[in-house]
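Researcher: Next sequence.
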Amino acid sequence: MWTLFYYELRHILRDITQLLVVALLIPLLLTPFVGNSFQRALRQSEALQSGTFFVAVVGPRAQEVRALLPQLGKFKEMPLTGSPGEALRENLVDCFITVEDAADVDSPGDWRLEPLATRSRLAETPRLTVHYNQSRERSQRAQIAFSEGVGRYLSRTRDRYLSQLGIEPKRLYQVHSENLASRRQEQVQLMASLVPIVLIFVLFGTGSVTALDAVAGERERGSLATLLVSALDRRTIAGAKWLTVVVISLTFGLPQLLGLLWNMRGLGGHSLALLSPGSWFCLFFFCLLLCLQVSAVLLWISARSSTFKQAQLLYMPGLLVTGALAAVSWMQALPLRSVMVLVPISGLSLALRDSLLEDFSLWLLLAAAASLCWTLFLLRSVADNLTLDLLDKPHSDVPVEQMRRSLSGDILWYYALAGALMVVVPGNLPILSGLRGQVALIQTTMLFLPLVLLRIYRQPLRPSLRWRNTSLSNWTICLLAAPLMHLCANSVAIISSWLLPMSEEAVRQMTQLLLPKDASQLELFFLIAVCPAFCEEMAFRGGLLHAVQQPRDRLHPSWRTCLLVGLAFGAFHFSVQRILPTAVIGSLLTYVALKTNSIWPCMMLHLVNNALAVFLSSLAIDYTQLPGWGWIAAWILLLYLLKRLAGVGPDREEREASETTAEA
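Model: Next structure:
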């Protein structure tokens, strides 16, 4: 292995000029721009918070708010010649306020400035409505600043009236805020969240120079055949190529990382110099483990590609998915002491965060052991894929089946790329960050992605998506199983909360950030129940299941197929807390689709489960109070009902597929 490693390293260093330019010189030249971008974004954010906002005030009682603006500070009224709505759209003002009499308008349920001591707003109390543009950060900040300013004004007014009554306000309450974290601790917290993600991008960039060509490129050129016919074991070949990728990643990645930390010292990079020796040791150790695992991921991508061009196409989905796994370091409420310690990349990301925060525990050793296991697993998979081509699997003489098996090897990459874009796009387009925007983006993608892929790979739509009805008995069973599935999903959610302990406050805040405050129950039913039930079933129990199913699934659904589709379904919900419950639901729905050969019962089960979640959320039901025997009984009854489902049979399915193909 060492001889092959030495040969591989010499082969790479032969063109040292190109390697230095691509892997070192260009990134180092770009590093100052990246660091300056972080610092400029921070300065702009601070400027937005401390600057002056331009507003317009309209309404019958506008003069009262005009007199209030100087006391609030940070606000300046802009005289208007047209309507305030047009001024907001043309960015002439950051927001505008309408001031109306209380008697002229109905009181909304979430009116923030309504006196809490009264059951209804007094007639003389004016209503202030702040109109802002959520897609503009400055407009959002203006709305927040105005609401907070009015709140402070009301507090001062209350204190003044209490003083007139002879009551000292400080005797009623006294609030003092004290930040127990030092400036260094705040900077280390920021770096602890940032370092794992920066490491992923640096290691992917430097390692790809070698890894993508190590297997895919040599397979395409034919030089891989020379190694395969030699006396070397495939695991030895995989190990030598992996060591080469590791060395190149460390050699060219370390200068880039140091350059980034130096240029981001204004954000806290210099605070790392004050870390204890134990933190430095853990930092280097887990950075090395992350380099080993990322190198194995890159080599696995290369081994799974038949050509160098395909490896380059798969590089971006791999980078985005791996970056998403490393992004758990931003979730401060998610501890390492959870099942996430066993997840690839994520466990190391949390271990790096805890090392920088000097939170040492035995869970760090478990994260290291899990990382080594995942690295060895990936290297074994690389060794298994060291073949002259990737087409040595059983194939069919039917053209449609050949294309389906080709789709089976590619569809997970397409879905991974789509999932990565679903995460990246809302972060850059604020209009898509809320529930409505995310539903529009995600569900539209889920609807059209399988249709486009099936058309590209020349698959018949109706049999591929299981657009066929099922028997009356199957519909009856599914109707009975729908509430049981919702109950069983909540039992898995309870187990998930044990495995991934997060505070109820953190979960509540994430839910409030996602759900729009002005959404009605009917709108939530449409957004959370109807749209996902149709679009997500088309994507997972339609296109994905058609691509990955095996011939034996037509007679007896296999746990492997159900689990694969279920895990993909859970991962696409982009929530650590919801992965396990949704994966279980996805596996059960996949079983129903395979058993009934119809997608319509899956849509109905999906709709009922989500609808119950919407309508029962307002009741604040505590599912943890249900006794253990109740959960066991629900699971037994659900599995019994699903076992009673009857399929249409393979003969009928093949006949319908052939008829559809003939019509096409």
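Model: The first strand starts at residue 53 and ends at 58. Residues 489 and 581 are 6 Å apart (CA to CA).
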